[in-house]
Amino acid sequence: MSRKPKLDHRLLAMLRKGAKPAKPVKAKAAPLGPTPERVKKGDIVDGEHRVGTGERWKGARVVSTSPLDRYRRGGAITDIQDRSGKRLAADWKAGAGAAALIGSYGERESTASGEMTDTAAERHHAYVMAMQALGPELSPVIVHVVLLDGSASGWAEARGRRGTGAKVEGMVTLRLALDRLARHYGLTSRGAPDTR
User: Fold this and answer.
1) Of 190 and 9, which is predicted with more confidence?
2) What is the pLDDT of residue 119?
3) Is pLDDT at 43 greater than 90 in this prediction?
4) Cα gap 74→77, rounded to integer Å
5) Most buried in the list 126, 172, 190, 193, measured by CB within 10 Å?
6) Segments of 52-174 assigned E as strands
7) Which residues pair with 56 in a beta bridge?
8) pTM, whole model, 2 decimals?
């Protein structure tokens, strides 16, 4: 004995009359946007943005993914500290420091023999001098936060600190390191670069 599936009586009546069943109405999916937490954190700006030459686009855009930018927007570091960290990162990247970690699909800056260009060598030298100015006690936090995009608390946790102690120690050490970088680069109002 075979079992026949039971049809809905209304659908069966419609099929007998020759009427086509109504197509189900698809609900429009709400456009995906940033989470309120990301907007509150300041990483994403929601609203109208300029794209290209005069065109406008409504939606969200990522402001930054750099820890230094987040700390700057949150008031954890000063503008001078932010600039000193970005200058070190620029020297490191231009001095071919980033090439050791990340392969580039762009044009390489090297001579035919594979050596660094003069500009890359100068930027590498500037990076080395800045790291020497930081010394062995402050350079690890700079490498972790500025060059590898880690958090200050993550650096402290890697050293064994936990909880609030990690946040406090990480930020205090980062601020001290950025202040020393600012003195080295001559960005502070106190004058001459730090030659330690």
Assistant:
1) 9
2) 83
3) no
4) 8
5) 126
6) 55-62
7) 50
8) 0.61
